[in-house]
Amino acid sequence: MEHALFSRFILAIIILNAIIIGVSTDPAIYENYHSTFIFLDILILSIFTVEIILKLIVYRSAFFKDGWNLFDFTIVFGSLILYNTHLVGVLRILRVLRVLRTISIVPSLKRLTTALFMAIPAIGSVTVLMGIIFYVYAVIGTNFYGELAPEYFGNLGLSTLTLFQVFTLESWASGVFRPIFSESAWSWLYFVSFIIISAFIILNLIVGEIVNNAQQISEHAEEETRDMKKIMNDLDELKRMVKEQGKEHKDKS
Which of 93, 225, 247, 253 is most exposed, with minimal Cβ within 10 Å? Predict the structure, then answer.
């Protein structure tokens, strides 16, 4: 189950499944090859089912201690249970979610996703801070630019949506900033300070937290690899010693 060839085979099936799902979104192709798509879907689902059953046999109760195994189990057996039911929408979602199994197969993706989940508490705190900044700037924008640009800063809700557009840096200069700047020369201070605080500082805090967690996980994985190599070397040394002792015993006999 842990062999590299087996993991590559499952990864290839996941990629094939993703390609089939993408191609099947074309109504013309799907209608012409409907039976082929059904056959391939059943075949891929069968392979995934056999994989999960084998893992259950090998790992037994330890299988359910891994969150990724639970994710795979839910998707595969959810698809089996809902296959011939009227819940077509849920089944389609589960079929698409099979593509996410790529994360559980590729170790680097697994480490990155784990780092993202580990950063959620810190991201929550940063999100609260960002919400406070958005609120403060939304109130300021509504008070100062509500009459100049009511379509952008007419009320608190519009101001918040406008600030979110500015935060994404999507057409903020030509669409939002320049019309207001032509009427209020000091408006650049409002927009530039908001972008520096939100887009450059706050966003980098989130990225930095994720990168830090990813680095810690990588270091932990490298340490486990070194320990495993040390154990294998000790086992090889032990085998050599046992073989030599057996040879000496045989010569004495």
Answer: 253
- Spatial neighbors of 43 by CB under 8 A, at least 6 apart, are none
- CA–CA separation, 94 and 148 (whole Å): 49
* Alpha helices for the chain (secondary structure H): 4-23, 27-32, 34-59, 67-82, 88-97, 101-105, 107-118, 120-145, 150-153, 156-167, 172, 178-181, 187-195, 203-252
